[in-house]
Amino acid sequence: MVGFGPEDNHFVSELTYNYGIGGYRLGNDFLGITIQSSEAVSNAKKQGWALTEDEDGVFVTEDPGGYKFFLVNKEQPKTDPVQKVTLAVSDLQRSIDYWSNLLGMKVYEKSDAKKHALLGFADDQCKLELQDIGCPVDHGTAYGRIAFSCPREQLPVIETQMKMKNQKILTPLVSLDTPGKATVEVVILADPDGHEICLVGDAAFRDLSRVDPNGSKLLDDAIAADKSSEWFEKHRKQKPSA
Question: What are phi and psi of 96, to 5 degrees?
């Protein structure tokens, strides 16, 4: 889990490495993450990272997996620098109805001309942007999911509401044990375009997601210990694509 601060009040990305997989096919479902940070822009330039500037003065780049990042060249705010996450939808109004009327998000902005809407649960939190691409959403093999924490008592209410509205539930309300840590309750939904949405009980999640001061070192050590690429090369095999 990587981000600019604790998950209590920051958006974080979950990076998953699957052993033995050499590549994924990107779909058109995930359109990017917007971050306000002049430091990020400066770092990208110093390291020779490919940057292009759009008509709004925002720098666009891609991570090694091909996922887009939009960097706003302004001082990093004291709150979360991650401004928004953009998902593609095939019918903007239908998606707004789902995320707003069913999941309770507030609509902060809507533009019929640009076919996009900005939603969120709170003024000081990362926003969700829905962008109508005018065609079916293809999740490829590189798709992920977006997750939110909420009071535990809301989970069965949300699940019941989704059932009543005949909406897709991928994983009914279930308790997941984490050895040595908290037991969290989750329900996983899918919106009209198949974007996976994981809702997690807040109290247990806060216990589970506490910042590990050794997290960066543990990650570096795990990467250094991974010899899978050497194994594939030694055996003259190529990692398959997902």
Answer: -60, -45
12-35 burial, b at 16+ Cβ within 10 Å, e below that, comes to beeeeeeeeeeeeebeebbbbbbb
Q: Give 102's DSSP letter.
A: I
pLDDT, tens digit, 9 for 90 and up, residues 223-235 = 889 888 888 899 9
Among all chains, which residue has been given the structure tokens 């009543």? Answer: 164
List pLDDT tens digits, range 151-176: 999 999 999 999 999 999 999 999 99
**Domains annotated on the chain, with CATH:** 21-141 (3.10.180.10)
Q: Are 58 and 71 in contact (CB under 8 A)?
A: yes
Q: So what's the pLDDT on residue 181?
A: 84
**Integer Cα distance of 91 and 174 in angstroms:** 31
Q: What's the CA gap between 126 and 46, in Å, rounded?
A: 27
Cβ-contact 87, 127 below 8 angstroms: no
Q: Is 198:188 a contact under the CB 8 Å cutoff?
A: yes
- Residue 134 main-chain phi, psi, to 5 deg: 70, 15
